[in-house]
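hey so u asked for the seq, here:
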Amino acid sequence: MKKYNRNDALAHQASILEDGRETFRHGDGPFPCASYLDCYSHQGCYPWHWHDELEIVYVQQGEVTAAVNDRQVLLKQGDGIFINRRVLHAFFMQGEGEVRMPNILFHPALLYGTQESIFWEKYVKPLVLSNGFTHMVFRRQVPWQKAALEKAEEAFRALTDEAFGYEIHTRSALSAILLLLLEKEGEAISRPAKSQAETDRIRQMLSFIEMHYTQPIRVQQIADSAFISRRECMRVFRNIIGLSPIQYVIGLRVQKAKQLLLETDRPILDICVSCGFQNQSYFTKIFRERTGLSPLQCRKSGR
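ran it, structure tokens below
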């Protein structure tokens, strides 16, 4: 098991490409599975991204908003979520204190082996190739979802302890979760997807912002990157991200600045300019509004 610290978070977020795809390798070829304990504080988050692995997350402490495409759901202590592969998503802590959120990422091949097997054709394929099934929230009040959460905890413990046979126990627990999803949500899994146009557009615009956040950015430039109107750009951002394009840009700049404050000794003014802020007083004001701390306080508290 691997616990996220600041270095881990920086390394993982640095592996997110311009289009939001996370390239960090979770596990290895023989055993494509890994577990992490995400710890957030000071309005921490994991930014918008997607990956080829399936993901199962549950909250041990605190509250987290899971954003999946154009949906947002509050996960309280004890809740969890399953996220299908190649689905755009992000996590944002809520409230004060610390969030502890175990998660497991695994390639579907862990469960089916080869595509000649019945496990692929009958069980895994319908889920991972479903365009309409993006995620499933698990609440402990629902018996079958509670069972899924218990299996997730079982898999996380196995990956943490790494006792003899942990790979088999992990695969068994994750297979049980897959089977529960197919049994209880088979109709939703087979349902056709809504148009992917908005998701494709937001990926293009996030890519543009990631490449240009250090420079002055106008909404029209963001819209042009996806070949849509300024009005449509505003609508898509509000619908999927829940923010205006400029609010998202500011949030990304603050996030990048926070990483540099915690991970480097660069002067604050240098970080301010390199993250796209035009003057230090505005940077300090926005940073405090977004994190509850001044840049200097953030650096000191992190150390």
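The first helix runs from residue 6 to 14. The radius of gyration is 20 Å.
lmk if thats what u needed
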